[in-house]
Structure formats: structure tokens, C-alpha cells
């Protein structure tokens, strides 16, 4: 049964459908693995064993009587601790929300449950989802990064990437077949890249945010962290209540990609190598690749502080200022940065961003996707991040730089592992083109294998 821990969610679903795996045995295997793993408490904020067993027993009955609800019926997954779970604590990684127990599940979790998926538990995350590094010292008393900081699969002493850090670690360490996270500025794609996974940022507004603890609802999106593009496609369909993208016959022949400068070349050595090698393989598989830039992208990036921090602080100001000492100082300071901007600043920034999004759409219309290194840097050491405030701030901003392009422009995005540890290649596609992006991803996945 231990080999089940390393299979994709889709492969597990097929095995359940063929009668080779019992959903109850599968759930128990994952629960036992999570309870017995040395990093289990740093990955899961809390397990939900009673719920998992009940859902798995229902899935077993459906498998026996031929009424399975879809490919993933009976497959267990993890959920980032900002998705409401009825009767179970949901704290979004913050002691500001200590003991918060919702009455109902988040809508996307309700849809997953109706599709027959099993909820294993809630994973650790960056506090209120406002950091790309994945550290959470607030759960350790503001001085010790444990137990709220999940490990990086390539070196537990390095940052795991955030804010969906536990979601990524649950999959990378074999404690869930897939995890569901959120992405406001890169929070699915960064931890996916740093832990050698596939991560999908969906188009903003595609999936319901009802019952999801917000950071900045104008940018918040939901997405899966998985072992395969197929799993991403299936989980998007589950959370939307629709049909998964058809990935059969996906090919890169005749596709056109834009390498976006300067963000593609202004990266550190290892991510640069992983990216350039990946681009070469995509080209050999038939993709036509052009290097260039898009007018106004630098201006859009400069709008980030007023757009993200202002909305985040406006959302959480009263809660933060009622008990500011409960927060990790670096994240608290980042929220408070939103106080530097006025309401007219915020409105003007959004008006300008909408114009720049139109420019982006016009200048990238004849490309299938834009290519970038997912993250410009490798995971930095946690000890140094804790000890050096300037280093923390600079690394956090750099970590989220490339992924933030997708959020600012309202795009969907997909990161794939390159084969170089903690280095991903990212494709960004037009709003609403999630299925097309997944087909491109499936073809690219084959080229990079």
C-alpha cells in the first residue's frame, strides 16, 4: 500500500474504478502516513480522520454498486487552512483567528465532497496568505518557525514556498495525492515550483471564493497542487462542477510562446538553467518561441504595493490592530504597508491596471502562452530569513515577482517541474483559457518528462 502514496490522484481514481483499491484502505493509508511522518505536524495543521473515514466508506459503497460520481470519487486530498470546513477549526495560519470554527464548508469543498473526494485535513500556510516564502513563525510564538512552517522536499532547512506551503508539502512528501491551495500573487505556483510539483492558478472568478478566508478578493484565486497536469484538470472540474479538459492528443506542434523579458533572464543561475533547458525541450517538441516584452508591464508591476497591500490591509486592519502582537512581524509590516495609500490612489491604480490589461491582451493575442521561470530564485534558508529582516523582505519580493505578472494581468497560469530541483517553468495564458492552458501543459509535460 505504501506505493499508493506516490501515485497521482487520477491513477488512484482509475484503480478504485477497476476494483484494485478500496477507498477506505486508501484513506487509512494516507491518514496513517500523515500521523506517523516526522514532518506531519509541520504539514497538517489538523487532520480530519472521522470525516475522511465516513466519506471513504460512502465512496466504497458507490464503487461496489457501480454508482461512482467521477474519476476522483474516493480519492483523498488535502485543503489549505483557509477553506472553511464545517465544525472544524479554520484559522488561515493566523493566531488572530484562533479557534474560528465555520458552520459550513467552502463552496469548492462542498463540490469536491459531492464528487466523492475525501477530505484528509487542513494544511499549514503563510499567515493570512500574505507571503511567498511559506514561513509561519506565528504558530511557534514568533521566534521559532516550527511548527507552522512546512519543510521543503529538497531540503527541510529551506523555505517551502507560500502561501500554500503545507498544500505543496502534503503532496511532495507523499501525505496526499493532491492539495488545494489559493493564489493571490503566486501562492500556488511558488510552492509547487519549489517542491517539484505541477500547480495551476485558475482565472480569477472562475472558482467560487465563498467560504474562503480572503486576502485580496480582487486577486484571490483557487488552484490545485498535483503530481500531473491531468490531476489539475480533474480537480478544476471537480471544484467547478463541470467537465475536465480533454487532454488527449495534446501537442506543441504549431504553438507559439513568448519569452517575457526582462523577467525571463533576470534570474539566478539554477532557475535560469532549469528554465533554459526546459525552453529548449519545448522547442524540440515543435513550439515556436519568440523573445520580447509587453508595453506597460513594468508600470503594472509598480502598481503592486497599492493594489495588493491596500486591499489586504483594508480587509484585515481592524482584526490586525486589535491584537498586532499575535502576528509575525514581517507579515504584519507588509499588511501595514497598505496604510500608505489613499482611496484615490487605490482607485487610480485599478483604473490604470485595467488599461494595461487591455494592452497586454492586444500584444499577446497571437501567442498561445507567455513563458517565464516560475520563480527567479531558489528557496532561501529559513535560519537566515528569520535572522535578517532585509533579506526576508528582498527574497519575498523576488520570489513573487514572476508569478505576480499573472495575477496583475488577470491570467491563468501553470507551473511544471523542469527536472532541476526547485526550478519550474511557467506558462501564462489569457483569462478564461484554462482548458487551453491545460492542454498546452499536458503537451509540455510530455516534452519535459
UniProtKB/TrEMBL annotation:
Residues 139-161 are annotated as: Disordered. GO terms for molecular function: catalytic activity. Residues 28-438 form the Amidase domain. InterPro entries: Amidase (IPR000120), Amidase_CS (IPR020556), Amidase_dom (IPR023631), AS_sf (IPR036928). Pfam families: Amidase. This is Amidase. It comes from Roseicyclus marinus.
Amino acid at each position: 500500500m505504501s506505493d499508493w502514496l506516490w501515485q497521482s490522484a487520477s491513477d488512484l481514481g482509475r484503480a478504485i474504478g477497476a476494483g484494485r483499491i478500496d477507498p477506505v484502505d486508501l484513506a487509512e493509508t494516507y491518514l496513517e502516513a500523515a500521523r506517523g511522518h516526522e514532518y506531519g505536524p509541520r504539514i497538517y495543521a489538523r487532520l480530519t480522520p472521522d470525516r475522511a473515514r465516513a466519506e471513504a466508506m460512502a465512496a466504497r459503497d458507490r464503487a461496489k454498486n457501480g454508482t461512482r460520481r467521477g474519476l476522483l470519487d474516493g480519492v483523498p486530498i488535502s485543503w489549505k487552512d483557509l477553506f472553511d470546513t464545517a465544525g472544524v477549526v479554520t484559522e488561515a495560519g493566523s493566531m488572530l483567528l484562533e479557534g474560528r470554527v465555520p458552520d459550513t464548508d467552502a463552496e469548492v469543498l462542498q463540490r469536491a465532497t459531492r464528487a466523492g473526494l475525501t477530505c484528509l485535513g487542513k494544511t499549514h500556510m503563510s499567515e493570512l496568505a500574505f507571503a511567498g516564502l511559506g514561513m509561519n513563525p506565528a504558530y511557534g510564538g514568533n521566534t521559532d518557525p516550527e511548527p507552522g512552517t512546512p519543510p521543503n522536499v529538497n531540503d527541510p532547512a529551506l523555505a517551502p514556498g507560500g502561501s500554500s506551503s503545507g498544500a505543496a508539502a502534503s503532496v511532495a512528501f507523499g501525505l496526499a495525492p493532491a492539495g488545494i491551495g489559493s493564489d493571490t500573487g503566486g501562492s500556488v505556483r511558488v510552492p509547487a515550483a519549489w517542491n517539484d510539483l505541477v500547480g495551476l492558478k485558475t482565472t480569477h472568478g472562475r472558482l467560487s471564493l465563498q467560504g474562503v478566508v480572503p486576502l485580496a478578493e480582487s486577486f484571490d484565486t483557487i488552484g490545485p497542487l498535483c503530481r500531473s497536469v491531468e490531476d489539475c484538470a480533474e480537480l478544476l472540474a471537480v471544484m467547478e462542477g463541470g467537465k475536465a479538459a480533454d487532454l488527449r492528443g495534446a501537442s506543441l506542434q504549431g504553438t507559439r510562446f513568448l519569452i517575457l523579458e526582462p523577467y525571463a533572464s533576470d534570474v539566478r543561475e539554477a532557475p535560469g538553467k532549469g528554465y533554459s533547458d526546459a525552453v529548449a525541450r519545448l522547442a524540440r517538441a515543435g513550439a515556436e518561441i519568440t523573445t520580447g516584452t509587453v508595453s506597460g508591464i513594468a508600470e503594472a508591476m509598480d502598481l503592486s504595493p497599492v493594489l495588493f497591500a491596500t486591499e489586504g490591509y483594508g480587509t484585515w486592519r481592524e482584526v490586525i490592530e486589535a491584537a498586532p502582537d499575535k502576528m509575525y512581524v514581517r507579515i504584519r509590516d507588509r499588511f501595514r504597508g497598505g496604510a500608505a495609500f489613499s482611496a484615490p490612489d487605490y482607485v487610480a491604480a485599478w483604473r490604470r491596471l485595467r488599461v494595461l490589461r487591455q494592452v497586454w491582451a492586444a500584444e499577446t493575442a497571437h501567442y498561445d502562452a507567455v513563458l517565464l521561470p516560475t520563480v527567479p530564485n531558489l528557496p532561501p534558508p529559513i535560519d537566515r530569513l528569520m535572522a535578517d529582516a532585509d533579506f526576508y523582505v528582498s527574497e519575498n519580493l523576488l520570489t513573487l515577482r514572476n508569478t505576480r505578472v499573472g495575477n496583475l494581468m488577470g491570467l491563468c497560469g501553470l507551473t511544471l517541474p523542469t527536472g532541476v530541483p526547485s526550478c519550474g517553468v511557467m506558462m501564462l495564458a489569457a483569462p478564461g483559457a484554462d482548458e487551453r492552458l491545460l492542454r498546452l501543459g499536458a503537451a509540455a509535460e510530455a516534452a519535459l518528462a
